[in-house]
Amino acid sequence: MRVWIVLLMVILPLVKAQEVYVGSYEVGMNEEFLVPVYVKAPKEIVGVLVTLKFDPNVVSVLNVSLNKSYECKQGCIWFKDVSSDSVRFVIIDKNGLNFEGGIVDVKFKAVGLGESELKISASMSSPNELIKPNVSGGYVKIQTSKVKITTVVTTQVVTTQSTQTTVTTKTVTTKPTGGFEFVFCVVSAVVAFLIVRRYR
Predict the structure, then answer these.
(1) pLDDT mean across residues, the chain
(2) Which of 24, 47, 69, 154 qualifies as a cystine partner to 138, CB 3.0-4.6 A?
(3) Within-domain flag for 5
């Protein structure tokens, strides 16, 4: 019994530690605005896959880029995929993300009056398994007059050093399919293999 209690004390904080979320905004018609995607990922997380869905009748995507607070250095790769109603991205870092804060910025433009849900789905990868983090979406409300509400979040950047692998950025131009998750799993497996091989 005591063994199970100890295991739960170790596992539960880890489960609660992973998060992916966005804020909520009220903007004016035709306004351009940034929506940071925030993550909380401890050292043992080597990959994150995020899908952000929205109503294309209310907002459209202008650009997707890494947030300035996150540095994708050696040992890190990332991919992005934009369609009419969603944005997907995956970040793999063989050194471990070990990061909390805004990781990717999605630049939107308000194209129609109304409200759009910002729906988040995500998965994270450790060297041993895929993990479903806690997720929290937001919304965008478009009004005729400009009123903007943002969420204030304190960020902390922790970087690691590596002498292997170079930074690579690639844009996926095809419409997202189930293959995107397959690529994420394959890349995560390769990263896990490299980590295990490195510490043998």
Answers:
(1) 76
(2) 24
(3) no
